[in-house]
Design brief:
The chain is mainly α. It has 2 domains: 76 residues, no CATH class; 110 residues, Orthogonal Bundle (Lysozyme), CATH 1.10.530. 59% of the residues lie in helices and 8% in strands. The protein is built from 12 helices and 5 strands. It has a 3-stranded antiparallel sheet with strand order 2-3-4. A hairpin with a 4-residue loop joins strand 2 and strand 3. The longest helix has 28 residues. It is globular and about 60 Å long.
Length: 243
């Protein structure tokens, strides 16, 4: 089986391109029997969908020089994968990564916000008294990127765990990629526990998608941090684009 990188691995190995992953998979797929071909393409497409939107992946496949039958099968699979599936099956997409990175902004000098934390990089925060970070301490862009990768992996794991726990209780909640990305953004900002205990997830567990999305708008929005209102609107828009 062709080795296909996850998004987190790709983020730190940018010499591995979207084009290389698709070309390797498409080239191998055309010589495989149908069942093996479908499995290979599905694995490749899961990787590609972590880099970009469904529309961008389909457009790229359509414009590629791959075998026409392989392209047709791949596009059919992408369209099928874009439907609602259990939330435990997603990884953070490139769209979600970019959204969070843009919201957090890059700060190479550690600082305090008065919330009991020392923050640096792309919103990486460690509790005062339990961190070696000191206000004014500088880190490199590479260090900031690695911290973001670790933090987003933890946030995504936490969101997946919520859906897995629900499923073990017999509650199978299905969402889309953009809904998952919005939930990871909220978990990164407010903590996985904060998200789990929120009205957002209470309504989502009940499959009240509209009420869940509306709950995003005011989640932990306070006068002290006015920027959160703008961020929540973007997370709401991202979540709502999934249905």
């Amino acid at each position: 089986m062709t080795n296909l990188l996850t998004f987190e691995e790709y983020s730190l190995n940018e010499e591995i391109s979207f084009k290389e992953i698709w070309n390797k998979a498409a080239d191998k797929a055309k010589n495989l029997p149908k069942i093996s071909r479908q499995t290979l393409l599905r694995n490749a497409l899961f990787s590609l969908l972590t880099f970009g939107s469904v529309t961008s992946v389909i457009q790229y496949i359509q414009n590629s020089d791959a075998d026409e039958e392989v392209k047709k099968e791949a596009i059919e699979q992408v369209e099928e994968m874009n439907k609602f599936i259990n939330g435990s099956l997603f990884t953070l997409s490139q769209t979600g990564w970019n959204h969070i990175k843009n919201e957090e902004k890059l700060k190479l000098k550690a600082y305090k916000l008065g919330d009991g934390m020392v923050t640096v990089g792309y919103g990486h925060a460690e509790r005062v008294g339990k961190t070696k970070l000191k206000p004014g301490q500088r880190i490199s862009e590479e260090e900031a990127r690695k911290l973001l990768k670790e933090d987003l992996t933890e946030a995504a794991d936490g969101v997946r765990r919520i859906f897995s726990d629900w499923k073990s209780e017999g509650v199978d909640v299905k969402i889309t990629q953009s809904m998952f990305d919005a939930l990871v953004s909220i978990a990164y900002n407010a903590g996985v526990t904060g998200l789990r205990n929120s009205q957002i997830m209470k309504f989502l567990k009940e499959k009240e998608y509209k009420k869940a999305s509306e709950s995003i708008l005011n989640f932990k929005v306070r006068k002290r941090f006015p920027g959160l209102k703008v961020r929540r609107q973007k997370e709401y828009d991202l979540f709502r684009s999934g249905f």
